[in-house]
Automatic annotation (TrEMBL):
Keyword check for Transmembrane helix: yes
Name listed for the protein in its UniProt record: Nucleobase-ascorbate transporter 12
Signal peptide (UniProt feature, chain positions): none
Composition bias, Basic and acidic residues: 89-98, 113-122
Topology with respect to the bilayer: Multi-pass membrane protein
Comp. bias (Pro residues): 7-19
Transmembrane domains' residue ranges: 190-209, 215-233, 240-259, 279-298, 305-323, 329-350, 362-381, 526-547, 553-572, 584-602, 639-659
Alphabetic keyword roster: Membrane, Transmembrane, Transmembrane helix
A Pfam family of this chain: Xan_ur_permease
Family to which the UniProt record says this protein belongs: Belongs to the nucleobase:cation symporter-2 (NCS2) (TC 2.A.40) family.
Length: 709
């Protein structure tokens, strides 16, 4: 080497160089944890309902990468395991490239550690970024063992592989278990939803002045119609394993119609049959409107306005609106009602991890178990004379009681004793529910218009259930045509409910999603067999009589739990959007607040503190049509406007739809539902098999593109 050659410079170090100054703390929680929001329907291998890693573990798994511009260390997510699916659309993650080195420096390439996928004994897919199953920091990846809790949470996304297997579903949508498993899981599925099926008629029939025998007949009719409509829906509707029944969405308008001023003069059996016929007429018209909405393809257009930020407050407002009915009725007999509430909370929360033969009996059967125990305790108290008062007969109406001593204890005897109902003894052993059993329906345009609006809200509720359940049990979400077809069939089945006289429409029960996530049963065959059993039970009159004899305080206690669950299931739709976004927080907050405040204004308008109302306090929110602030020369218009604007779900829906579709926000921030398209159905046979009509019926309707795959 000659002396004129330049001296070699210092040996270049690794690239990117280590910052000289101490790293500044991350400027936000998202940078600190590496959080990346997702679309509704996207997934990764670790996003299963039973194996989601906690946030600190995910943060430890992520590789660090210096950020020269910010002067801090940022976290980079690990490379993807497989292509992610966004509600039926494949979205492969792209690797982030490091910034180019400055001129004059030598860059040392850094090789990414290979990503390994492992499956443990429970079938949980583990991910590791380093050798021997270690993550980027050298720590082993924590995976849930057999003794850990399975989280019954619907994940935000799906893997491109078998979804049901990743979610630890025991059986997928098209699986056909043996006869014994089908029978067992079918009974389990319907028992877990017992409260949703029978509580609505136990509320509306006494409000109409119906007798114990009529309560039993309506309960049997509800079981019969629920079984028939469920079979129709799993065969010709969405084809998802969703039970159809009397939804709480129809309860508020039914109570508003029942408490209309024109019915206040009726009494006894006349009252029940006349109001039931009015309800039948309103339900038939509103359901026919829903059927036209679905089968005409208009629902496909409405779907563009319906997103998680709309569904969440609308469904939540349904549950919150009954706060005036729940505990005020429980207070009629606190020692029975409070025990019922405490038991269902203990079973559903504190004992939810206890399994018997791999079945979480306390979580799945929280409602029937708590009902049985409380009912038995109340029976013992009744038989031992705890609610027996000398010279007082609980079967005598309060208005006919002369003794001051007996009048003091009449309320306690009526609500605490379990022998005041004669529904079981008066019910026949066999009874076949038939159409028009209460008489020819009466059609009133103002009540029918109210039901038409309610049918739209019921459709919004069902859309959220379709999307959530499809992520659990199907290969991909349905197409817009399948959703329209399902909404159209719901309208048709609600027409059947109106003809048979159930008092409410028939729609997809929101509790389906929670039941599927808990029982891990996604086979439509199980739901279909359970529906057949439900039809058989409906023909046994004693079954309806037994269910109708549930004490009213216990019904109110169970409703407190069911309405709270309904509210929570509605708000859980926000998991598909960026729930921490200030835009979404404000929209949901405004929708929920005004859904309670605006109806309160209508309900309290014109009522003085000393008003002597003819209805119990828990029915006062539903008599607004007689004293609401909307007053014009047209009484029918007054009735419609005062009734609709006094319903929480209507106000929440109006505000959420307007705000979500006018306030700027990205699709990712809004969590826009992404449905499958016809091209995907043609390309993937699994999607077509999930939603195509049976018996090759679909080939005759291929020209109807807006209600098919």
């Amino acid at each position: 080497m000659s002396s004129s050659d330049p001296k070699p410079g210092p040996k270049p170090g690794p690239w990117p160089p280590t910052p000289e100054s101490a790293a500044m703390p991350p400027s936000s929680w998202a940078k600190k944890t590496g959080f990346r929001p997702k679309f509704s329907g996207e997934t990764t291998a670790t996003d299963s309902s039973s194996g989601q890693l906690s946030l600190p573990v995910r943060a430890k798994q992520q590789e660090t990468q210096p950020d020269l511009e910010a002067g801090q260390t940022r976290l980079r997510p690990p490379p993807p395991v497989s292509a992610a699916v966004t509600n039926g659309e494949t979205d492969k993650d792209k690797k982030e490239k490091p910034p180019p080195p400055p001129p004059g420096s030598v860059a040392v390439p850094v090789k990414d550690q290979p990503v390994k996928r492992r499956r443990d004994s429970d079938g949980v897919v583990g991910r590791s970024n380093g050798p021997d199953g270690a993550n980027g920091s050298g720590d082993p990846v924590r995976r849930p063992g057999r003794i850990e809790e399975t989280v019954e949470v619907l994940p935000q996304s799906m893997d491109d592989d078998l979804v049901a297997r990743n979610l630890h579903m025991k059986y997928g949508l098209r699986d056909t278990p043996g006869l014994v498993p089908i029978g067992f899981y079918g009974l389990q599925h319907y028992l877990s939803m017992l409260g949703s099926l029978i509580l609505v008629p136990l509320v509306i029939v006494p409000a109409m002045g119906g007798s114990h025998e009529e309560v039993a007949n309506v309960v049997s009719t509800v079981l019969f119609v629920s079984g028939i409509t469920t079979l129709l829906h799993t065969s010709f509707g969405s084809r998802l394993p969703l039970i159809q029944g009397p939804s709480f969405v129809f309860l508020a308008p039914a109570l508003a119609i029942i408490n209309s001023p024109e019915f206040q003069g009726l009494n006894g059996n006349n009252n029940f049959k006349h109001i039931m016929r009015e309800l039948q007429g309103a339900i038939i018209i509103g359901s026919a409107f829903q059927a036209v909405l679905g089968y005409s393809g208009l629902m496909s257009l409405i779907l563009r306005l319906v997103n998680p930020v709309v569904v969440a407050p609308t469904v939540a407002a349904v549950g919150l609106s009954f706060y005036s009915y729940g505990f005020p009725l429980v207070g009629k007999c606190l020692e029975i009602g409070v025990v019922q509430i405490l038991l269902v909370i203990i079973f559903a929360l504190y004992l939810r991890k206890i399994s018997v033969l791999s079945h979480r009996i306390f979580l799945i059967y929280a409602v029937p178990l708590s009902l049985a125990i409380t009912w038995a305790a109340a029976f013992l108290l009744t038989e031992t004379g705890a609610y027996t008062y000398k010279g007082c007969d609980p079967n005598v109406p309060v208005s006919n009681v002369v003794s001051t001593h007996c009048r003091k204890y009449m309320t306690r005897m009526k609500y605490c004793r379990v022998d005041t109902s004669h529904a079981l003894s008066s019910a026949p052993w066999f009874r076949f529910p038939y159409p028009l059993q209460w008489g020819v329906p009466l059609f009133n345009w103002k009540m029918a218009f109210v039901m038409c609006v309610v049918s739209v809200i019921a459709s919004v509720d069902s859309v959220g259930s379709y999307h959530a359940s499809s992520l659990l049990v199907a290969s991909r979400p349905p197409t817009r045509g399948v959703v329209s077809r399902a909404i159209g069939l719901e309208g048709f089945t609600s027409v059947l409910a109106g003809l048979w006289g159930t008092g409410t429409g028939s729609t997809t029960l929101t509790e389906n999603v929670h039941t599927i996530a808990v029982t891990k049963m996604g086979s439509r065959r199980v739901v279909e067999l359970g529906a057949c059993v439900l039809v058989i039970f409906s023909l046994v009159g004693k079954v309806g009589g037994f269910l109708a004899s549930i004490p009213q305080v216990m019904v109110a206690s169970l409703l407190c739990f069911m309405w709270a669950m309904f509210t929570a299931l509605g708000l859980s739709n926000l998991r598909y959007s960026e729930a921490g976004s200030s835009r979404n927080i404000i929209i949901v907050g405004l929708s929920l607040f005004f859904s309670l405040s605006v109806p309160a204004y209508f309900q309290q308008y014109g009522i003085s503190p000393n008003s002597n109302l003819s209805v119990p306090s828990y029915y006062q929110p539903y008599i607004v049509s007689s004293h609401g602030p909307f007053k014009s020369q047209y009484k029918g218009v007054n009735y419609v406007m005062n009734t609709l604007l006094s319903m929480s779900m209507v106000i929440a829906f109006i505000m959420a739809v307007i705000l979500d579709n006018t306030v700027p926000g990205s699709k990712q921030e809004r969590g826009v539902y992404v449905w499958s398209d016809s091209e995907t159905a043609t390309r993937e046979p699994a999607l077509a098999k999930d939603y195509e009509l049976p018996f090759r019926v679909g080939r005759f309707f291929r020209w109807v593109k807006w209600v098919g795959i």
